[in-house]
Amino acid sequence: MRLIGFILNLAALTAVAWANHHESLSLSPAEHSVVRYTNESLIVQCRSPDPKVELHWKSPKGEIIREHKGRIHIEQTSTEQLKIVFAHIALADKGNWSCEAADGSLHSKSFDLIVYQKITFTENATVMTVKEGEKATILCEVKGEPQPNVTWHFNGQPISAGAADDSKFRILADGLLINKVTQNDTGEYACRAYQVNSIASDMQERTVLMKIEHKPIWSKTPFVSLKYAYINGTATLMCEALAEPPANFTWYRKHNKLHSNNRLYTIQSDSYWSSLTIHVLNTSAFDNYRCRARNDLGTIERTTRLEQGEKPPSPANFQLRGFNSNTFDVVLSAPRGPPDSPMGVNGFRIEYMTEMEFKTDAGKWTNARRKDYAFEEGATFLLTNLEPDTVYLVRAASRNLAGFSDFTKVEKYKTLSLEPRVSSGVKETRNMCVELGVMTLMVLMRPFLG
């Protein structure tokens, strides 16, 4: 009997020990796989059924985490709980992380940390300049996990890249190679990176404007080699050239370089154009004027001839034919001159401003609105987008190849109001209807008002 009792006690103790050995730890969150992006945070709590059991966390490399502060550390809030804290997750943190009992008495628990990295570009330049005829490499190094797929576009259109060394475009691991660049290759190149993973999809784009360095070339604007002006008038000569880097413009009369001044010449320049306004004080102003456009890669120049013309006659007929709340319909006419004469009237200019604007500008027309029209026999001309119920001052001038005529005398016109016109009889009827309506309402409401 003693032997049987001993065997039963031994079996009970073995069963308890076996049960304790197989009782496992628990994790919260309990997922077997946890997905995070780089720089995100994560806290996982490990819990033991026995508060006397010491716990520890192991990295994917099998190293025990002992730090209590830092990017990856542990925190113990109670005897049976141990947390692992990822303050900023890195790509290197991916792998299997396990929580174990220090004495091995309990089954361990683990989770797989899956780390994704959002799309980033290592380059940040948005403009690049390349000399004409050379090779160009637009860098686009993309980082991400999983590795993004990259496509290239030029001015919004997909680029078809070849594999041969002499292909126009070749897609490299970290960019796009363009062979023998020309001015036609100027434009925006977009590097688009696509990424798809188990929790999201993403697309990011990096755009680079490529400019091709080249010597100046004349723009496609028609060039006028002969200009006219009259004594005490002005003539404006234009010079437009494309260049990279932008050209410097200079003006010459014979061999003398011209400078802007208030009396004879006014010069205005921008990156791709320059204008010379000549104040014609006497016949000596009629001459050849040369524009030069120059950058480090080359120089171009051309000449415009200024000849004496005739001042056009002022409009002979200038009157208002019709109007409404936002439009004036104006009649304009002038003697056009002989049909074979280059000095015939070829158009008109109308200037207009509100009476209030005229007073604010101290009686000057500098800020007046202007509209130019081509000459048409018997035509009328519209001034639109006007303010309703507003007085406007309006004047007009004729135009020919030599410039503008003197302006006509100033006319005052007023637009209509937006409020509809109502006759006195209609007003009286409307007032009577309102009074009757009020009286009827008072009668109906009397029982409720007591």
From TrEMBL:
Keywords: Disulfide bond, Immunoglobulin domain, Repeat, Signal
GO cellular component: a single term: plasma membrane
Superkingdom to which the source organism belongs: Eukaryota
InterPro entries hit by this protein: FN3_dom (IPR003961), FN3_sf (IPR036116), Ig-like_dom (IPR007110), Ig-like_dom_sf (IPR036179), Ig-like_fold (IPR013783), Ig_I-set (IPR013098), Ig_sub (IPR003599), Ig_sub2 (IPR003598)
Statement: the UniProt record of this protein carries the keyword Signal: yes
Keyword Disulfide bond: yes
GO BP terms in the entry: anatomical structure morphogenesis; cell differentiation; homotypic cell-cell adhesion; imaginal disc development; male courtship behavior, veined wing generated song production; negative regulation of epidermal growth factor receptor signaling pathway
CDD domains recorded: FN3, Ig, IgI_Twitchin_like
A Pfam family reported for this protein in Swiss-Prot or TrEMBL: Ig_3
Signal peptide positions (record): 1-19
Annotated ranges, domain Fibronectin type-III: 314-418
Ranges for domain Ig-like: 29-112, 117-209, 216-307
Name of the protein: Factor of interpulse interval
Organism: Drosophila melanogaster
Gene: fipi
